[in-house]
Amino acid sequence: MANWVRISSRSIGNHIRKRMNQGFIGSAVDINKSSGSSSALHGGRTVCDRNRRYLNSLPWNRATLFWFQRFKSTVAEKQQDSFLSSDTDDDQLSLDFPGGKVSYTSDMNFISESSQTRVPCYRVLDDDGELIKDTDFQQVSKEAAVKMYSKMVNLQIMDTIFYEAQRQGRISFYLTSAGEEAINIASAAALTEQDIILPQYREPGVLLWRGFTLQEFADQCFGNKADYGKGRQMPIHYGSKKHNFFTISSPIATQLPQAAGIAYSLKMDNKKACVVSYIGDGGTSEGDFHAGLNFAAVMEAPVIFFCRNNGWAISTNVWEQFRSDGIVVKGRAYGIRSIRVDGNDALAVYTAVSAAREMAVNEQRPILIEALTYRVGHHSTSDDSTKYRQSDEIVYWKNARNPVNRFRNWVQSNGWWSDQQETQLRSSVRKQVIISLIGLDIHNLHFFSDT
Ligand SMILES: Cc1ncc(C[n+]2csc(CCOP(=O)(O)OP(=O)(O)O)c2C)c(N)n1
Ligand SMILES: [Mg+2]
């Protein structure tokens, strides 16, 4: 046993030394080579720039490199909480503890269970889809914006028709992404195809964005011979090796420790890619959430943990799920840089994921994103959400805070979209979805929904 520990710690040490010699770990903290696209943000005020200034002010050398890299993620924003002490060089006043000095205090203060104010939510578009003045955001080209909007509509229509197919008894189960279309599509649009996705289950739009066809979705839900899982999985458990999208697994949160491990392998192979792992607010109560985040932080793995906080975990609302200020505050506890974003604002999601990806890949670190949104549909076809939540609440989120309409308003206000294109798109997608079902030789198809 002792021998094994000696050998394995020697090989980990060798790995670190090898990476340092290759400049790999060095490049992760290379203050001169920071992320390329940061200047693309309006105003150029980015986390990376602020970090670079902070790094420049520090005395550092190669010997302190590894130590420094382990802790830099906690200094990103330099937010001073009242309970935090200022740095001191006086050894009498501080405890030289493994991992860094801790200053002493004579005041016996418990850290408050909550801060005075909640972490704000980053957004770019107001509720009507108008650009908020002086906001930092990543510009999107006309082509990209139109593609993003079209894919959101694709997702909406696929959901409506597949949901009805389940109600008609043609498939055993279905689960919609209604209300979370912006999260699905805008996060996918900000990534490259080399980035590896580990989904929870309410993110089929990521696969749709990457080119998984409507027929492939239908084949999986019907569990026919064209389904890659050969019908062994429940409907909606999609997966595609070709699209770097791991197969969905029913036990929630198991994907998080796996994501940290896969990201660490990307790091060891010196790949310019990251892992993106999605999780719901309910999933964060699983032990695997802790394991995944802690592992990723310690190993400095390039992974984005994307939490869709949609207010509900089946019938359990967030207040009954946790008493923290959502999920975003948990990042700091693990030493992970984090942001809260409006999940119903496609431009905000796109910008946040672009910046997170840049930091994850260029600085080799995990990032946590909490996107605030709302599950407009029932949890699944096995659920009736009106039994545990107010209809008014659902209607409010469905209409007043609709992410698809909001993004459409912005695209249309740029002169990139018209009512005529809208009608054409909806009727063409509807036909394509129905064709994907006709191909399965299903008879007496009737879909009446106004999609
Ligand atoms: C390990 C595990 N525990 C419990 C369940 C049952 N379960 C399925 S979905 C779900 C709620 C998940 O809620 P959330 O993570 O918020 O995702 P959402 O459905 O809101 O998108 C639960 C508890 C499960 N699938 N796996
Ligand atoms: Mg949820």
Automatic annotation (TrEMBL):
Belongs to the BCKDHA family. The keyword Metal-binding applies. It comes from the Eukaryota. This is 3-methyl-2-oxobutanoate dehydrogenase (2-methylpropanoyl-transferring). CDD domains: TPP_E1_PDC_ADC_BCADC. Heterotetramer of alpha and beta chains. Its cofactor is thiamine diphosphate. InterPro entries: Alpha-ketoacid_DH_E1_comp (IPR050771), DH_E1 (IPR001017), THDP-binding (IPR029061). One of its GO terms (cellular component) is mitochondrial matrix. GO terms for biological process: branched-chain amino acid catabolic process. It is found in: Mitochondrion matrix. Residues 151-433 form the Dehydrogenase E1 component domain. Its EC number is 1.2.4.4. It holds the Pfam family E1_dh. It comes from Hibiscus syriacus. PANTHER family: 2-OXOISOVALERATE DEHYDROGENASE SUBUNIT ALPHA, MITOCHONDRIAL. Gene3D superfamilies: 3.40.50.970. One of its GO terms (molecular function) is metal ion binding. Keywords: Metal-binding, Mitochondrion, Oxidoreductase, Potassium, Transit peptide. It catalyses: N(6)-[(R)-lipoyl]-L-lysyl-[protein] + 3-methyl-2-oxobutanoate + H(+) = N(6)-[(R)-S(8)-2-methylpropanoyldihydrolipoyl]-L-lysyl-[protein] + CO2. Its main location: mitochondrion.
